[in-house]
């Protein structure tokens, strides 16, 4: 079973009470109830949603995974779907956890698909702002969105640090190895996933800000505006990092191509130098007399020619930066 909390008249009155008491507390206009479920069965979810009069489409949305972040409005409640994110530095992968929420005038029900969505962090944000508990559901909703957006921002920041490290490899003296190439690929996948869950959050938070009735008496509006600013920063940062990572990947390919061209020039240059003594000694190897044959000066002339021509070729290739 999930976790429960009861706020009455702006104060935390009870938590960890039985689920059966939820319907009794919800009927009290002075009470605000939070109920959390992690990987519930369809029967467990429908039992609590029937008590709150949740629409069938919203229930199906909570049961179906991999939906886009969104905020759907029904007559008596709203349905919210969000994702938290956590970037693994060692592997370069992004772990995402989906969570849905049913929002009524005095109840918030969160439905998580795994423990990766750290509900304890949401609760910590609520406990750190006891002066805002009087605002009821907007206060609880802000804590939930604040955790989600902060997880996005932290992931973007961690990815940025990894991309800065990859920039060093693009122009380093050591060639780019397969591990660096694999890391670029993993981080690129993570950025694509992160962008997919960050971009729709602008619409979700902006919808709450535009509808003043969603924020109660309006005292929570500045807090939602702060969350919206974080969403914009995370979205813009994600786009810029994706472009930067593409540039790094292109730089890796360009540096590899340049390195290969340099190696080919060096090999060709040394082959040309080696061809000179090969030509002369090959000429001497013919079964015909040649100038200086049988005389010491013939050997020394051929040796001098080999050294001089090879030195001239080496100097010429060095000037062209081929060696």
Automatic annotation (TrEMBL):
Q: Does the keyword Transport apply?
A: yes
Q: Where in the cell is it found?
A: Cell membrane
Main location per the UniProt record: membrane
Q: How does it sit in the membrane?
A: Multi-pass membrane protein
Please provide the record's keywords in A-Z order.
Cell membrane, Membrane, Transmembrane, Transmembrane helix, Transport
Q: Which InterPro entries match?
A: CorA_cytoplasmic_dom, CorA_TM1_TM2, MgTranspt_CorA/ZnTranspt_ZntB
Q: Kindly indicate whether the keyword Cell membrane belongs to this entry.
A: yes
Name the protein family: Belongs to the CorA metal ion transporter (MIT) (TC 1.A.35) family.
The protein's matches in PANTHER family, at most eight in alphabetical order, are given as:
CORA FAMILY METAL ION TRANSPORTER (EUROFUNG)
Q: What is this protein called?
A: Magnesium transporter CorA
Q: What is the lineage of its organism?
A: Bacteria, Bacillati, Actinomycetota, Actinomycetes, Streptosporangiales
